[in-house]
Amino acid sequence: MNKLSAALPIARIVLRILIVLNWLGGAAILALLVAMPNEQWIMAAFKLSPSPDADRLIMGLRAVAALGLATIPLNYVVLKRLLAIVETVREGDPFVAANASRLQTIAWSLLALQLFSLVIGAIGKAVSTPAHPVHLDAGFSINGWLAVLLTFLLARVFAEGTLMREDLKGTV
Amino acid sequence: MAITIKLDDLLHDRRMTLTELADQVEMTLANLSILKTGKARAIRFSTLNAICGALSCQPGDILRFEPGEERAIKQ
Q1: SS3 label, residue B75
Q2: Owning domain of residue B60
Q3: Is B5 part of the contact surface with chain A (CB cutoff 8 Å)?
Q4: Cα B22 from chain centroid?
Q5: Contact criterion met (CB below 8 Å) for B39 and A170
Q6: Model pTM greater than 0.80?
Q7: In terms of CA atoms, which chain A residue is nearest residue B46?
Q8: Quick check: helix, strand or coil at residue A46?
Q9: DSSP letter string over B3-68?
Q10: First CA to last CA distance, chain B
């Protein structure tokens, strides 16, 4: 019980920190995108010499950065909804329709994030060359897709549970 | 709802208050009040059993089906 009660404040703090880190990550990617038009700078950073492969690599990195930027609002949606769910647990009333809806939104966001990850992974593979290998932490992840499935299921369980609870509320 | 609760009449006949009934059936006064005022959406068999035991009556004495009520709600 004590462990559970400690988990809530920890979850709140961690989620708040992650929200800030997510925005900072977004700002860093945006800065990178702004710096990227400067091809000389990128060439120097990656020790590239002008070639079709180098152009492809720069294009790929720009695309990955742009897609990475697009994932920031999705991460925010997931973290913010999770924080709201944690708040309802703290208030002692988590089995409400709003949480079922939040979980549904989280599930769709996770699905979108997995799709982004697939595209980013594919771009990484496409632009990677033996001379300049690109290792991105993206692509197909069985755990990621399992998380999507579980979250959709959990949203459904919450929706059903909320309805049952509503029925029980009026039962004497 | 066409089902109405006749708990008031029964309590009056037995010269019993809702608080006394609540004590006898070991239910909260708030829950019994919800039942008495017809705000309950469902009633457990165990609740019905306890009330019937305390008031020495049949479930039909507590619950009544009044079709007119249903029509009134639909209109």
Answers
A1: coil
A2: 3-74
A3: no
A4: 12
A5: yes
A6: no
A7: A172
A8: coil
A9: EEE-HHHHHHHTT--HHHHHHHHT--HHHHHHHHTT--SB--HHHHHHHHHHHT--HHHHEEE-HH
A10: 12
Sign for the CA dihedral angle at A98, A25, A23, A116 comes to negative
Token pair in block for residue A102: 């939040």
CATH number of the domain that residue B52 is part of = 1.10.260.40
Task: Measure CA of the first residue to CA of the last residue in chain A; give whole Å.
Answer: 30
Structural domains counted in chain B: 1
CB pairs under 8 A between A and B: 23
Query: Token pair of B43, please?
Result: 């009633």
Distance of CA A65 to the CA centre of its chain: 14
Nearest CA in chain A to B40: A170
- Determine the Cα–Cα distance for residues A106 and A152; give it in Å rounded to an integer: 8
The two structure tokens encoding residue A87: 């708040």
Distance CA A104, CA A112 (A): 13
* ipTM here: 0.72
Distance from CA of A94 to the nearest CA of B (A): 22
What's chain B's length in residues? Answer: 75
Look up residue B31 and give its two tokens: 């829950």
Q: How many residues does chain A have?
A: 172
Q: How far is A93 from chain B (nearest CA, A)?
A: 20
Instruction: Quote the tokens at residue A116.
Output: 């982004």
Task: Return per-residue pLDDT of chain B as tens, 75 residues.
Answer: 788 999 999 999 999 999 999 999 999 999 999 999 988 889 999 999 999 999 999 999 999 998 876 555 544
Inter-chain residue contact B42 with A171, CB threshold 8 Å: yes
